[in-house]
Amino acid sequence: MAIRDILVIPDKKLRLVSQPVANVDGSIRKLAEEMFEAMYDAPGIGLAAIQIGEPVRVVTMDLAKKDEEKQPQVFINPEIVWSSDETSLHEEGCLSIPDYYEEVKRPAEVKVKYLDLEGRLQEVHARDLLATCLQHEIDHLNGVLFIDHLSKLKRDRVIKKYTKIAKQAAE
Ligand code: GNR
Ligand code: NI
User: 10 preceded by cis ω (within 30°)?
Assistant: First the structure.
């Protein structure tokens, strides 16, 4: 099967609030597989289902370094149940905003509860890249992009640039 396309701003679908998964069944496992395929191909370290056009609360991630073995992780219906008062600044990028990187301030640590691919309830205490990535992906599930955490000036500039590119591509 062909690799699924990753949606790019200003695609309106990226602003949808994704629906919770009711049952972790074969269709969700198939979706996760398609997400990994698109994520590894891009390549990226995380992906929310809406980035391939599916408005459901599924996130894939692999934070392994290039020389390490794959570490595929799936987070279903992820929910932040605690975040630290302490914040940290991390440079972020997004496959839906190609080639744009900016530092974003977020809580340094979060606790996230989620379902795994077997439908079991799990909880993770995340810091560093995992905390950043989980918050970035959970934002996607709520129709929020990392540029929404920047100044309005920077955000408007980025949206304008990608709107122009999309219009040129449509000519
Ligand atoms: O590949 C990605 N890298 C990344 C780097 C810093 C913070 C977040 C990310 S997630 C991003 C892939 C993506 O767009 N996920 O939604
Ligand atoms: Ni993203």
Answer: yes
CB 14 near ligand 1, within 6 Å: no
Residue 137 annotated in active site: yes
What pLDDT digit, counting tens, does each position of 24-80 carry? Answer: 999 999 999 999 999 999 999 999 999 999 999 999 999 999 899 999 999 999 999
137 in contact with ligand 1, CB cutoff 6 A:
yes
Q: What is the pLDDT of residues 109-128, one digit of tens each?
A: 999 999 999 999 999 999 99
pTM of the full structure = 0.98
- Relative to the CA of 133, which ligand 1 atom is closest? 8
- List, in order of start, the domains of the chain with CATH numbers: 12-170 (3.90.45.10)
